[in-house]
Structure formats: structure tokens, C-alpha cells
Amino acid sequence: MGHGQSFRARAAAPPPLALALLAALLLSRTQNPRTSASPTCYPCKPNLLVTAADFHSDALAKPGQLVAPFDTSFAGATVKQFPGVNGLDLAATRLDVRVGGVMPLHAHPEASQLLIVAKGALSASFISAGTNKVETAVAFSAYSSSNPGLQIADYALFGNTLPADVVEKVTFIKEAEVKRLKAFFGPRAVPS
């Protein structure tokens, strides 16, 4: 497209395969029909019940739940929010990292990740001490799995019921500091 031209798109009827895989979320998950991977697919919704809304999601339109210790919010889009991705092994996340916020040390054990920064600037690496210093940064992640999983190291290390002396031995962090961190993160689930 040349300079000054605009792009217009219009919705079209989804291909027959998309209709065949559209999630019936009230039923339990089944084996993905395209792979032999772990169950990542919901049974298909009957074609007569399919609507245009099944192929649209605003799950990433606004910031999600703030995780206070990190000053970062997360909003997710999986098959539960977007039935049209059923069986495609896809998921996405919106990240809003406030000024001074950080991404906690984490892993997605079930997926590869693609990070796209839409606003602001982020310093991203395997391990980074960088913080966001200018404005709230907005980024979107795409995953190669409908269930990429999330393991945040801080919650795994200090939000558990292991005794502090055991955590001290495996992390080499003084027991008093382990106790302080366990009190802060507490035995609870990873924020969703």
C-alpha cells in the first residue's frame, strides 16, 4: 500500500474447519484433534449455535488484574475467553508494566512465547534487572499452546508450605529473609 492509503477489512464467514472446532465451553476438554499432545481442546460447538461473537474477544482490550508486588497487570485470552481459537494451540496475554514495575522471573513450561511491545519500552531477556522508567508499557504475548502454563519464581520459592530452613538450604538465602519473603508472598496460588 502506498503512503496515505488505508486498509479496510471486513468480516467473512469462517472456514468450515473453524466451525468444526469452535469450543463448546460447557463441556470438558478432550484430546486435540490435530496433535497427540495433552488435552487442550474443548468439544466442538454445533454449527447451528455458532455466532459472530465466537470469533471476537475483547479480553486484551484493557489491563487485567494488577499483581502488586511487581506493579504489572496481566489479562489473558485463551479458548475460555475466545472460543474461536479452540484446537489451534494458541493463547495470548496483555501485559501492562507500570513505571518502576518489573516482570517477575517466570517460565511458560508448555509453550514458546512471542512478545510484542505496543507502547512504551521494555527491557526483556532471560534474566533482567531492568525496570520500566518512563511510562506504563503495554505488551502482548502470543504462545504456541492453548495452555502455556505460568510459573512465577517468587511464588514457587516463597509462596509454598516448605519450612523456611529447607528453602534456606536450597536457595542459600538466610532463614530470616526466607521467613520475611514467605510472609509477604504467603502460601497461595499464583495470581491469575
From TrEMBL:
All copies of domain Cupin type-1, residue ranges: 58-179
Residues involved in Mn(2+) binding: H106, H108
Localization, UniProt: Secreted, Extracellular space, Apoplast
Principal location: secreted
Domain of life: Eukaryota
MF term (GO), any: metal ion binding
Amino-acid positions noted as binding oxalate in the UniProt annotation, renumbered to this chain: H108
SUPFAM superfamilies in the cross-refs: RmlC-like cupins
UniProt family annotation: Belongs to the germin family.
Protein name: Cupin type-1 domain-containing protein
